[in-house]
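Data availability (excerpt). The following record was deposited with the supplementary files.
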Amino acid sequence: MICPKRTAELLELHLESLKDKDPAWEIAVSKIAGRGVFTTRKLKRGDIIFRDIPILIGLAARQEDTLNSCSICFKVLPDTKFMCRQGCALPVCSVCAKKKQHKDECALLKSWEPIEPDVANSVIIRLICVARAINLSKEQRDLIYCLQANLDNNHRTEVRNAAKCFNKFPTDKKLIELMNRTVAVLRTNGFDETADRTNDNQEFFYRALFPLFAIVNHDCVPNSYYMFEDKTNYMVLRASIDLPEGTEITTTYTKLFTGNIARHLFLKMKKNFTCKCPRCSDPTVS
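Predicted structure:
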């Protein structure tokens, strides 16, 4: 298990811009699974536990009718002429096309030589969330490596499929490993829209990784709920019940009203663990 202290140090660096001098959370050893997030003081129902900044975020691009959105600001663009004119194969608005972030990403993807630079390709648009890990700082990349990643037989598939969309996709082993690891972390603890996680929480239409939230462990009867700030896409996690000091914060990876069998199958297949929370351990609950 990665040291909770080191994880906390990297998270504090990541969240430094929020300037929270008295956080209501801390990272500690969990009885549920390795590390967890715990309260540092009493919290009332509805109190903010933490705000989290996405370390990676991009378009989910799961449906063809959503591909005409700017890859930077996510604004929906006209149905025609929304692709970057420089040939990087990314959709971008006229304002964001001038921003440094897009110029850097444009140069990166152009160096890989997209096969069809003027065609909106969901594989490439989804990949940009992963590829953004390349331009992170060392500390930010270390934070990604601190997060749980289920390295199953499929976590390399996305990068392999993306490679087929370019003439000169990188072959550097460290770069490929970074992207594969990022995919695995996103698959394990990231958001890819909220189709499979929506319960009482607000819907979220992007692909993103919130590193502090990624440490929060699962319980089928969670004691927190999350929302997203529209202007910033920051996450806000609130207490769903009164919480004493030292309580482990939990969330749910499934829908609240899903039956035991369906929840167990989902958690085993998608999250690679068997839940042993009180709800799952109660033989009277179906």
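Summary of structural features: The radius of gyration is 20 Å.
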